[in-house]
Each structure stands twice: as structure tokens, then as C-alpha cells.
Inverse folding.
């Protein structure tokens, strides 16, 4: 039976990094962090003596000195879910909170009413760098869906009101915006270091993905982002930033 | 139906074996460009099935079991052990129960999900290939130490319309 990936917090990640220079003895830690340490030991990242496992040196190296760092934040209701990845030349480390992917069972009210997860835990995975875009696409729920045509312009306050309240009025009489307003909706921010590029994407479930930009103060521009273009965007953001080992 | 992919699901993990031009699978290989000439697209055909494909500049026709045509990015010096981007084209007659390109595509994706590790389908787009109705399926999966992005492009040769239709 495959071993479950560790679920850790930011404190658990710091503990992993610190284990490269200082042994992390279990009896010196408080209960929640000791359980995270135990998971890191079971995953083979930290040895029973509390030191970083030598075989995991490049894992810590990838986090400390990544070629590329990718962070995806998805905001819906009062919740922000986060996917972080550090890409080294040979290894990448992913920390991911529960996927925010919208399912067919989710209503607009479900998504707008989403609450923060009870635990700020991240599932930790060590993967080859080329797997990060696929993992991010899966986490985001990037898959086949409608690809609308044509840019749309609308007031930012109207869009922000709709994100918070599915009952907010549709601005104007555009049938595409009306359809978009009737779908579950969440906002994704993709940030890549060291280029510091930040891209906003509106996920409107069955009404498609839209790249978001500001044309002039107060006006949001929605540009259709078909799934294959969203994939290409992810790859471009990562590869233009560093020399991570993507094939 | 034809299924053109970019995949290493056939042959060795590191890529298919080179094909000696014009031999082995009944295909006719593209003519090499004259020295110094600008790179041009070639053309390759598989007489047994009637399949024909354009060949990107520099790509090689290679041999692989079960595929009508296979094209691969040329291996550079010292790169024999590296993954080579490749395109695999197969030709098959689907079961009678599968009617239409959408059903064929859906059945193919289900089959791939059984065969490949961690398959995630990113996009399925409607395309026209050589005048035939087709789909472009973009997906990612794992193969050992490799993460692979693959495009599967099934296309259907539709029956000729009947008189009066």
C-alpha cells in the first residue's frame, strides 16, 4: 500500500530545513510539531536521530535555493488555498493545501461561502521538476471545459461583489457575463519567483477560465483562457523564470 | 481512426528505435534536405493504411511495434539516453459500439487512464485534421523519472455522405 505523503505546517517545513544543521529530537518538540516530525521521519526525509537524511539533501537544497518558486493562491469566500512549489535542477518540492478545484456538485453559493480549512496543513510531495506543472494543473482543476470567445470589460467593484455574493447584479446586459455570473467562481493568483511575475485568472467553472487584467483604474479586462492556453501559460511562467529541469 | 500522439508509451522508455528509411513498416521516408538548404518540412506515408504525415524539419522516422508511423526528434551527440519528443500515429477500426469521434476520444482517455501513471487530462479541443473531424487531447503523466506532456489527436475518416443527404 503506498505511503501517505506527510501533511505539515510552515513550522514543519522549518523543522525539515533546520534538520540540515541541528538534530531535531522529538522529545524537545510540542505535540503538533512532534507529530509532523514523525511523519517526516516516516517519509525518509529526517533520520531517527533527528538529522536530515543525507539522501534528502537535495530536497532541502531545492527549497533553500530554488531555480524557480511557484505559488498559486485560490481565493473563494473567506478561504485562500495555497499550492507552493520549489523547483531545483533535479528535484522539486510541493506543499499543497486541499485542492480548490470546483466540481459539478458545487453551487455558486458553495464556492462563495467557502471557509478556511480547519488546519493550515500542506501535503508534502517530492517530485521531478517536470511534474510540477501537471500537479499544479490537477490541483487547480484545470481540465476540458467551455472556451468562450472575446474579451469582456467590467467594473472591478462589480466583479469583486460577485465573488463575495452570487446574488450580486450582473453589470450590463451581456449574455456572456450573465452566464458567467451564474456559475461558481473563484480567483487564482499565480506568482513565480525570481521574476516576480503575478498573473490573475478567474475560474468560472462551466463558463471557462479568464485571464484578468486592469486596463485603467477601476476596469477589469477578462480575456478567455482555454485550458490548453492555461497550460501553456503555466509552462511559460515557469520556464521563462529559471532553468528548472523541465523537458 | 487515426491516433497521433506525442508519447513514449510504446517502445523503450527513452524513445523508439531508429528506422532505416523506407524499410520495416512499409512507409516511405522523407528525402533529406540538400546541404545548406533552409530546413523544410518533409512528408511520410504508410501505404498499407493510406496514412500520410508531414515531417517537421530535422525529425526522424523511427520504427515501433504496433504503430503505422513514428516520428522522433533527432538524438544529438551524447544524448542517446535522453527522452526524445516523438509522435506516434496508429490506425485502427474502432468497435462498432463506438460511434463518432467524441465517443472514441472518451474511450481512448479511459484506456490511457488505466495504462499511464497519474494521467491528468488538461484539454480536449475540437479540431479538423486533413478535413477530418478530430479532437486534440492534452494530458500529462509520469513515466519513471520523467513527467510527460502528451497530445493525443484522434481523427475519424467519416463515411461518404449518401445521395440526397
Amino acid at each position: 500500500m503506498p505511503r501517505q505523503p506527510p501533511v505539515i505546517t510552515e513550522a514543519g517545513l522549518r523543522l525539515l530545513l533546520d534538520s540540515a544543521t541541528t538534530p531535531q529530537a522529538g522529545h524537545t518538540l510540542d505535540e503538533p510539531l512532534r507529530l509532523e516530525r514523525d511523519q517526516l521521519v516516516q517519509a525518509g526525509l529526517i533520520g531517527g536521530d533527528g538529522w536530515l537524511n543525507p539522501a534528502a539533501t537535495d530536497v532541502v537544497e531545492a527549497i533553500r535555493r530554488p531555480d524557480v518558486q511557484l505559488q498559486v493562491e485560490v481565493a473563494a469566500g473567506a478561504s485562500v488555498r495555497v499550492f507552493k512549489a520549489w523547483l531545483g535542477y533535479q528535484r522539486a518540492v510541493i506543499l499543497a493545501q486541499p485542492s480548490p478545484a470546483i466540481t459539478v456538485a458545487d453551487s455558486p453559493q458553495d464556492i462563495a461561502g467557502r471557509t478556511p480549512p480547519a488546519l493550515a496543513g500542506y501535503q508534502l510531495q517530492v517530485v521531478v521538476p517536470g511534474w510540477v506543472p501537471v500537479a499544479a494543473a490537477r490541483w487547480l482543476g484545470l481540465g476540458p471545459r467551455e472556451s468562450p470567445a472575446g474579451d469582456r470589460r467590467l467594473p472591478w467593484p462589480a466583479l469583486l461583489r460577485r465573488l463575495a455574493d452570487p446574488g450580486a447584479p450582473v453589470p450590463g446586459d451581456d449574455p456572456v457575463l450573465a452566464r458567467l455570473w451564474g456559475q461558481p467562481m473563484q480567483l487564482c493568483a499565480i506568482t513565480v519567483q525570481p521574476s516576480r511575475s503575478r498573473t490573475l485568472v478567474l475560474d468560472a467553472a462551466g463558463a471557462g477560465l479568464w485571464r484578468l487584467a486592469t486596463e485603467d483604474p477601476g476596469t477589469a479586462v477578462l480575456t478567455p483562457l482555454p485550458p490548453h492556453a492555461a497550460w501553456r501559460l503555466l509552462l511559460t511562467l515557469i520556464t521563462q523564470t529559471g532553468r528548472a529541469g523541465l523537458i | 481512426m487515426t491516433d497521433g500522439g506525442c508519447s513514449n508509451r510504446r517502445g523503450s522508455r527513452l524513445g523508439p528505435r531508429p528506422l532505416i528509411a523506407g524499410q520495416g513498416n512499409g512507409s516511405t521516408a522523407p528525402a533529406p534536405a540538400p546541404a545548406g538548404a533552409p530546413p523544410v518540412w518533409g512528408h511520410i506515408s504508410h501505404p498499407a493504411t493510406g496514412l500520410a504525415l508531414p515531417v517537421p524539419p530535422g525529425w526522424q522516422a523511427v520504427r515501433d511495434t504496433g504503430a503505422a508511423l513514428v516520428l522522433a526528434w533527432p538524438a544529438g551527440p551524447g544524448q542517446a539516453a535522453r527522452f526524445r519528443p516523438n509522435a506516434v500515429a496508429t490506425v485502427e477500426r474502432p468497435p462498432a459500439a463506438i460511434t463518432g469521434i467524441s465517443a472514441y476520444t472518451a474511450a481512448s482517455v479511459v484506456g490511457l487512464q488505466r495504462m499511464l501513471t497519474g494521467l491528468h487530462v488538461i484539454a480536449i479541443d475540437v479540431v479538423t485534421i486533413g478535413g477530418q473531424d478530430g479532437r486534440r487531447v492534452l494530458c500529462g503523466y509520469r513515466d519513471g523519472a520523467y513527467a510527460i506532456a502528451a497530445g493525443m489527436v484522434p481523427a475519424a475518416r467519416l463515411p461518404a455522405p449518401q445521395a440526397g443527404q
About this structure: The mean pLDDT of chain A is 92. Chain A has two domains: 7-63, 66-239. The longest strand of chain A covers residues 68-76. The helical segments of chain A are 10-18, 31-42, 57-64, 108-112, 132-140, 156-164, 175-181, 227-239.
